[in-house]
Write a structure and sequence with these properties.
GO terms for molecular function: 2-dehydro-3-deoxygalactonokinase activity. This protein is of the alpha/beta class and about 300 residues long. It folds into two domains: about 110 residues, 2-keto-3-deoxy-galactonokinase, substrate binding domain (Nucleotidyltransferase, domain 5), CATH 3.30.420.300; about 120 residues, 2-keto-3-deoxy-galactonokinase, C-terminal domain (Nucleotidyltransferase, domain 5, 2-Layer Sandwich). Helices cover about 35% and strands about 25% of the residues. The strands form three sheets. A six-stranded mixed beta sheet has the order 3-2-1-4-7-6, with helices on both faces. Helix 8 links the parallel strand 13 and strand 14.
């Protein structure tokens, strides 16, 4: 049975491409590939997309609504940033195509002048939250390589900050002296103890990090150096972002594993954060943009 969607939703990141055949807000089918932005030459975006969606296309032009790094300067074409405060989807940028069976629109990212910050891709998940909860007034935390803390009010992104916690974890665990100590073992209590330690004394983060290596050398290695590293970094991030989450309604959007860690860490402060499904938020945001294009 052939699939003929009303439109096609696309989440295109640096390392992978995900597509969904959509009937309104309902998913008819989904496909993915490893054809991320970093793997493609400038002329390779349309062929990579068609490789996944060709069988879904009919004679007319099917709208494709995309988000993510595909809209960066190194992507298919630049979808210019919107300035805060702003609604999170804004006006999509139309991409040049050769195949008359598709039109491709890419959602813009968001920028902030002071303090300088940018996001691209996360704004679509935020738009999904707003579409589902238009009265949401609080903070969205999107854990990842570059974790975002975003203040939302009146259906707008008011301001935000980014923490390089995920990238720092990768560098420290793979390229620093700590790589000799990190194993796959995990212990929740070790993680929570490290969060509590660093939130209490964030100025000691550098020495706390080296203690992971030193403890192993003097025979006092903790139950899980990996959990301690994550706890130190997330604890330092929470200490720095306290003005964002303190006393706020906090929603977490991201991978299940990372969101669970942030929820545990925030629980130490007495805050119960909600975890929202990342794919559902992405699709809700893309659907809102598609519906907006029809008006």
């Amino acid at each position: 049975m052939s699939i003929r969607p009303d439109w096609i939703a696309v989440d295109w990141g640096t390392s992978n491409l995900r597509v969904w055949a959509m009937q309104g807000r309902d998913v008819l089918a989904a496909r993915s590939s490893d054809a991320g932005m970093n793997t493609l030459e400038p002329g390779g975006f349309e062929p990579a997309l068609l490789a996944l969606i060709d069988s879904w296309l009919g004679d007319g032009a099917t709208p494709v609504i995309a988000c993510g790094m595909v809209g960066s300067r190194q992507g298919w074409g630049e979808a210019p940033y919107l300035d805060v405060p702003t609604v999170p989807t804004g006006s999509p940028a139309r991409m040049p195509v050769r195949d008359a069976r598709i039109t491709v629109s890419v959602l813009p990212g968001i920028k902030q002048a002071d303090p300088a910050d940018v996001m691209r891709g996360e704004e679509t998940q935020i738009a999904g939250l707003i579409a589902e909860e238009p009265r949401f007034d609080g903070v969205v935390c999107l854990p990842g390589t570059h974790t975002k803390w975003v203040r939302i009010s009146a259906e707008e992104v008011c301001h935000f900050r980014t923490a390089m916690t995920g990238e720092m974890h990768s560098l420290l665990s793979k390229q620093s002296v700590l790589r000799h100590s990190i194993t796959a073992d995990w212990d929740d209590q070790t993680f929570l103890d490290a969060v509590d330690e660093v939130m209490s004394r964030p100025e000691r983060i550098a020495s706390s990090l080296f203690s992971i290596r030193a403890a192993g050398l003097v025979g006092r290695e903790c139950a899980s150096p990996a959990a301690r590293l994550s706890g130190i970094l997330i604890g330092a991030e929470l200490a720095a972002m306290k003005p964002y989450w303190l006393g706020q309604d906090v929603a977490l959007i991201g991978s299940d594993k990372l969101c669970a860690l942030y929820a545990q860490a925030l629980r130490l402060t007495g805050l119960e954060a909600r975890i929202l499904d990342a794919t559902r938020m992405t699709l809700a945001g893309l659907a809102a943009a598609y519906e907006g294009s029809l008006t």
